[in-house]
Amino acid sequence: MKNIQTLKGFRDFLPLEALKRQYVIDKLKKEFELYGFEPLETPSLEYEEILSGKYGQEGEKLMYRFEDLGKRKVAMRYDQTVPLARLIALYRNKLYFPFKRYQIQNVWRAENTQKGRYREFIQCDIDIVGSTSLLADAEVVELSIKALQVLGFKKFKILVNDRKVFTSLLLNKDLSKDELSTFVRIIDKIKKIGKDGVLEELSKYGFKRETANILLTKIQNQEKTDTLKDIYAILENSSIAKGQLVFEPTLARGLDYYTGLIFEIETEEYEAGSLGGGGRYDNLVGMFANEQIPAVGFAFGFDRIIEAMDYLQLFPTNLKTSKVLVTIFSNELKDNALEVVAKLRENLINSELFLSSQSVIDKQLKYANQKSIPYVVIIGPEEASQKLLTLKDMSSGQQEKLTLPELIKKVKNL
Question: Is the Cβ–Cβ distance between 32 and 126 less than 8 Å?
Fold first, then answer.
């Protein structure tokens, strides 16, 4: 027998899970568009050289890359920021700036799978390209907060930092550029492995423990940069962000392309990791466009959000596609059922017809229960003779006889 299991880190989604994912996507899209962001899509495959060298050492190890049938070296989309930068460079004469986009597509990483971490997963990105204004930074932070609030999250915090906190070590000649990259990547793990774990790992890369401890303490004692103070001032005027920003000088977000603001969102109610992260990356687009094009953005951890919402019971209990099941009492009354379901659909009521005239009513009611369809329409000989319909509420078991116009009006209001 052939193996019918999915590959490790890849998943199927049955209808209920797919409905949850669609619910989150619809909520996020609505919020993104409220702020003037427009949809964008890029290919799953890029030339390897487009993606390579943009994500730091860890990203290079996790990237899916291969040679295609045309002997081209290609890689699968690792995130949506680098493809955005490539797209901006390619179409910059056709776009308007600041360019505000959202993108909701799959990405692939050869991760060690664990709770909330997969090899194929959806990312939801928002980005503002072409503006150096800190109003853009503040808007991305605000929208990230608002989007999570709309999904039902309440107890979460925004960890913020500025990459300039780390480049100060470079300017003071504490570290070389390569040493700084390694240092930043490792101290970003401080919440997972603690200070001793960070110092131990730094020692493996040639840092003397005493020197590493001095540098780490120096970072931990940093104060907000002027940039962060200005962003705080903008956001403090917004009731949306009030009291949720936490300055965290060890927050690094290990990707090499960040240049200014960096931030992550965490909730104390769900401890599997951050719900997303982002920041300013003013030099990345210039790698492709041969000019500096500033940008700031945020990536929502879509699958983590789904898991957190499941854990916190934030999904509505009535997630389903069909609101009404129209039964077929007998083959002689099939046309009556067809007429009713057609009228329900004309009135934009999601309706399903039981696709057999040979099944007993009990089996059809069981089908409605299995699919969590809340209402069932029954048209028996008595109803047909009186030109009425029986509407059954599947949760309470209550039934009432209605004319078709009455039934449409009632179901629309339920």
Answer: yes
CA 159 and chain centroid, separation: 18
User: What's the pLDDT score for residue 171?
Assistant: 63
Residue 215: its pLDDT value, please? 83
CATH placement of domain 324-413: 3.40.50.800
Q: pLDDT > 70: what percent of the chain? A: 98
Q: Starting at the earlier edge strand, list the strands of the sheet with 389-393.
A: 351-353, 324-326, 375-378, 389-393, 399-402
d(CA 232, CA 263): 12
Amino acid at 68: D
Domain boundaries defined on the chain: 15-163+223-312, 324-413
Mention every residue, 6+ apart, whose C-beta is less than 8 A from residue 2: none
Task: Map tokens 């470079």 to a residue.
Answer: 170
Cβ 9 vs Cβ 113: under 8 Å: yes
Give strand pairing partners of 389. 402
Q: Where are the alpha helices (DSSP H) in 318-357?
A: 334-346
Q: Is 130 helix (H, G, I), strand (E, B) or coil?
A: coil
Give CATH superfamily name and number for 15-163+223-312: Bira Bifunctional Protein; Domain 2 (3.30.930.10)
The residue length of the chain stands at 414
- The tokens describing 206, both together, are 């040639």
Cβ–Cβ under 8 Å, residues 261 and 230: no
β-pairing verdict for 389-393 and 399-402: antiparallel
Q: What is the mean pLDDT of each run of 10 residues along the chain (414 residues)?
A: 87 94 97 97 96 84 94 95 91 93 96 82 95 96 95 92 83 73 83 86 85 84 91 84 85 80 89 85 84 92 91 89 94 95 97 91 94 95 95 95 96 90
Would you say 296 and 280 are in contact if contact means Cβ atoms under 8 Å apart? Answer: yes
* Number of Cα atoms under 13 Å in the Cβ half of residue 346: 10
Strand 389-393 and strand 375-378: pairing? antiparallel
